[in-house]
Design goal:
Elements lengths: L2 H14 L12 H16 L7 H9 L5 H15 L6 H4 L7 H13 L7 H22 L10 H13 L6 H12 L4 E2 L2 E2 L1 H16 L5 H20 L13 H10 L7 H14 L6 H11 L37 E9 L6 E10 L4 H11 L6 E6 L2 E7 L2 E2 L6 E7 L3 E2 L14 E8 L1
Parallel strand pairs: 3-10
Antiparallel strand pairs: 1-2, 3-4, 5-6, 6-7, 8-9, 8-10
The structure holds cobalamin and 2-acetamido-2-deoxy-beta-D-glucopyranose (NAG).
């Protein structure tokens, strides 16, 4: 065939399949279905933390269990919008932070709820107010930061945008400034998760058709820059940052149609490989991953119509129980040290005996209850699981941006939290009070 003819054919092909470019390379539908099922199972488990992100994943999926989804939505409503009748218990319920409120609003959009009612309008107002407060905190001093984080700030912007709400241009400008000054970092390292979430927010704003040309131009530029940064963060393995930031990174590439590039199938390959090996056990991460495997991103929530949905997802199909960890009968020994720089002394340093297969959290409990020395710790429930909030009476502080970092000696930062991480025999864990 003539080269020009080939070219023409190629162009026709691209025109005919505009969005299908990031296909699942060696798609394993059974595996993806099991992930979907596991999330559905989690939504039915009353001992699990209620998580609007899990609901989002179920809604973005092609396959549904509409009744179970409706039940889950109702439970979310009871917590996030306690009505007058159920507010007796709601009194001690903490007000959700910017990010949780944003996730809940995304959930309402994914359920095609009527947002013109008084209670719903109030929620939108509340999120706007949260963002205003975050913005003030950034403006408060040079190098100011949001109250929560740029991750949650971006989630807030994304949620309002997905609802078609116009956002205060100062709020948008602060996010643009943060992008320009490389503020999407933890410590000195780029946070791929935060960058991707900000990118999703920018991509939504770009499509919104609500802003003046100058602002739109700045937003478009930000989408480009953020996407490039994500592409540069791809490792030889195909992940963007680590494996757990890759789902959100892929969501951004899907949302910005960057899928023409070979990076896309390579990233998908890495995700599927890890899924196969059972590396995704955290409900929050699983919920960020499932949409990607369906070629979806959070931007797709904006156009959901909730009609003619396939109501065929059942719990009974056989899937490997990904989250069940079997405790061994053998004892293992793990070293546990606590560092609080610049204090030169190690606050605690002892070896702890636990059953093989124990989580790091089990080990901390053992240390506190029967280990040598006087180890103490506190946890705080989050959508991501139990967060190590205090060690030896020293509390993590949001204002000072300090936290208890989990390390494997001498200095490898763990990629999982205390309930998901399972130390090996002879391993040495360091809890280090660190800035972020
Ligand atoms: C911001 C952030 C942080 C901040 C949180 C402080 C703050 N004020 O925002 C800091 C720097 C403290 C942090 C710490 C850690 N993080 Co972090 N973090 C994030 C990030 C980017 C956003 C979280 C968020 O705001 N979610 C949205 C809101 C609405 O949900 P939320 O439940 O209210 O959010 C709270 C929790 O998520 C909690 N949190 C943050 N990280 C982690 C990690 C774990 C394991 C738990 C249980 C809770 C937790 O802090 C949030 C604010 O209070 C996510 C990215 C992602 N993809 O989710 C990574 C992420 C959740 N973190 C991760 C990890 C590994 C950690 C650490 C364990 C790292 C380490 N080696 O020490 C520690 C936690 C240690 C501990 N003490 O328990 C991983 C988890 C991977 C996995 N397998 O589950 C993620 C996905 C990043 C990544 N790609 O590796 N993190
Ligand atoms: C803890 O003690 C062990 C030996 O008992 C030592 O090898 C290690 O360096 C100590 N760790 C810290 C952080 O002090």
């Amino acid at each position: 065939m003539e080269p020009r003819m080939l070219q023409l054919l190629f162009v026709l092909h691209v025109l005919a399949f505009p969005v299908q470019l990031c296909e699942i390379p060696r798609g394993n539908p059974a595996l993806i279905k099991c992930l979907n099922m596991e999330l559905l199972r989690l939504s039915q488990d009353l001992s699990e933390e209620l998580n609007p992100s899990v609901y989002l994943a179920l809604r973005l999926s092609a396959d549904h269990s509409l009744e179970k989804e409706a039940q889950y939505l109702q439970r979310l409503k009871n917590v996030f919008q306690p009505s007058a009748s159920s507010s007796k218990a709601g009194g001690q319920q903490k007000q959700p932070n910017t990010g949780r409120l944003a996730l809940y609003l995304l959930a309402l959009r994914a359920a095609c709820q009527d947002m013109e009612r008084l209670l719903e309008r109030r929620l939108v107002t509340r999120l706007k107010h949260h963002l205003h407060k975050e913005k003030e905190q950034i403006a408060f001093k040079r190098n100011g930061r949001p109250i929560t984080s740029y991750y949650q700030y971006s989630l807030g912007v994304l949620a309002l945008c997905v609802h078609g709400k116009k956002i205060d241009s100062h709020v948008i400008q602060k996010l643009l400034n943060a992008e320009q000054h490389n503020k999407f970092t933890h410590g000195s390292k780029l946070s791929v998760d935060t960058t991707a979430m900000a990118g999703l927010a920018f991509a939504c704003l770009k499509q919104a058709n609500l802003y003046e040309p100058k602002l739109v131009a700045a937003i478009s530029l930000a989408v480009q820059r953020v996407t490039n940064r994500i592409l540069q963060a791809q490792t030889t393995r195909g992940t963007f940052g680590n494996i757990f930031s890759s789902p959100l990174a892929m969501q951004l590439l899907i949302a910005t149609r960057m899928s023409k590039k070979p990076v896309c199938p390579k990233g998908m390959d890495a995700l599927l490989g890890s899924l196969e090996q059972g590396h995704f056990q955290n409900p929050m991460i699983m919920s960020q991953l499932l949409p990607v495997l369906d070629g979806k991103s959070y931007l797709d929530i904006a156009t959901m119509e909730c009609q003619a949905e396939q109501d065929t997802l059942e719990l009974d199909t056989q899937c490997p129980g990904a989250r069940t960890v079997i405790l061994g009968t053998k004892m293992i020994i793990v070293q546990l040290a606590v560092e609080h720089p610049p204090n030169p002394e190690t606050l605690y340093n002892h070896s702890i005996q636990v059953l093989s297969g124990s989580s790091l959290q089990d080990m901390l409990r053992t240390a506190a209850e029967q280990g040598p020395g006087h180890f103490t710790f506190e946890t705080q429930n989050t959508l991501h699981g139990p967060f190590l909030a205090a060690v030896m009476g020293v509390k993590a502080s949001n204002g000072e941006r300090r936290y208890w970092q989990l390390l494997q000696a001498p200095d490898t930062s763990l990629q999982k939290g205390i309930s998901d991480y399972h130390p090996q025999d002879g391993e040495s864990i360091i809890l280090k009070f660190s800035p972020w």
